[in-house]
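Example (one chain per record):
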Amino acid sequence: MIRFRGLLIALFVLCNSAFAGGYVYEFNSNCQKAYNEIMALKNVEAKNTLQAELKRNPDNIIPEYLADYTDCLNLLFNGNPADLAALKVNAEMRLELMDKGPSNNPWHRFCKANINLHWALVHLRFGENFKAAAKFRKSFLLLRENKNLFPDFKENNVLLGLEESIAGAIPDNYKWLGSVFGIKGNVNNGVNKIATYLKSSPDRNTPMYEEAMIYYAYLKFYLLSSQETAWKYINGGQYNETDNVLRSFIKANLALNYRKADIALNILNKAENIREYKHYPIFHYERAEAMLLKLDFNCQSHFQQFLKDYKGNNFCKDSWLKLAWVAYLQQNPKRKDYCLLQLKSTGNTLTDADKQAQRFAEKPVWPILALLEVRLLIDGGFYQNALLKIQSIDKKKLSETANILDYNFRYGRICEELNQTENALIFYSATIHSGRDRKEYYAARAALQRGFIYERQGRKNEAISAFKDCLSMRNHDFQSSIDQLAKAAMNRLDN
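Predicted structure:
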């Protein structure tokens, strides 16, 4: 991964030369070109563009601001702890440099705010939650001040929109964060700010357009539960992933989460021809996920490649769990036990997926083979195949409560996706009734899905009641992610 430390040194040297006329913030065509290259993960091209800009305009601070993107994207995607300390020093030097920049320029506070936001995300990625919270607070306060001083500086709205949306989805047990930051979160208002920025940029060549697209799609998809709107957006003319590995990742990721495994594989197959693809092991993980959801057990080689190449700790336990699933489905008990043993000694539990994998490894309760296949087929979007598979199961022979909950929840999901809404609600109610006080996530997810159904039907009060019911269930798997979805749903229904 290309680093930008050399840019920082060059900037200090040049800016203190006899020819330096004082620091400036100039987001010119060179900087726009570099931004677009960085947001396509074309780091070699971006470095060359920024060096050319510094040679032409050595007093411009914007190149160092942009260089921070590359450091943080490296850490977010590849997660190598060995890079964290060195790149953190880069960020500190950049912020010190910006303190010397002209404070009467709207880019002054904005650049500092975005770098703080970058590092809030990085600290969160590495499990440094208090550092993340402190950086997030700095970012928000700088943006709020910048908005007051420069109300017509439209780039403010992209970051303010993101941060307000995040604050609007803070679960109840983290509400203190909002009060500390002084943020009154509102998901709808936050997303609307970003949408306004996108509409005001018809030529799509503006300083925050790439990020605005990504934030808009993800916030629509996850926090506003407008999956179809988000999917249509990233399939529109404004979003072209050709020769853009970051856009390809985003689109494949949303395809997987929208239960479109076949489409995700098509996107990844095309992305494999992009030069930068090979620098990001996470693509092996995404490909393996998509293949597993088709019950294509050749996914094992991609999970293994991810585990070999990836230097971080996230999704490692989940990968070993998925490898254990494959061994289980192939009825290979020795391989299954080996995978669970490896799971316990690798990675961390910062993500919900890894937490669930660790819990399972410590006390494995295996579903019947057919139920695991049903789960995978549903998640891949193969609903008719899942229906045929679940109909072959004799529910009377399901002795374990966990298997009964699994069966009811999966049947409900199939019915919901096939527009058999009343049947879905029946299965969800049965899941909630039997699983409310258990550690499995089925009951909470059933309550969440029931809320989504009521919301789509315009039954607002019943939807809010379902989401509150979801939030009332504690100490289950995937607690954080399920709570965030329920909280976001209540936030948008309250406005």
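Caption: The two ends are 44 Å apart (CA to CA).
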